[in-house]
Amino acid sequence: MLKNTLQKISQEFTLALEHEYVGHPLADFIRNEGPNIILDNLPESHKDYLTKGSCGQDKWATKRGAWINIMNPAITRGASKGYYLVYGFPAGTTEFVFGLSQGYTEAREMYGSKWEDAVENTANLMRLCVPGSLAKGFLFGKPRF
Question: Residue-wise over 43-56: b if at least 16 C-beta within 10 A, else e?
Answer without folding.
Answer: eeeeeebebbbbbb
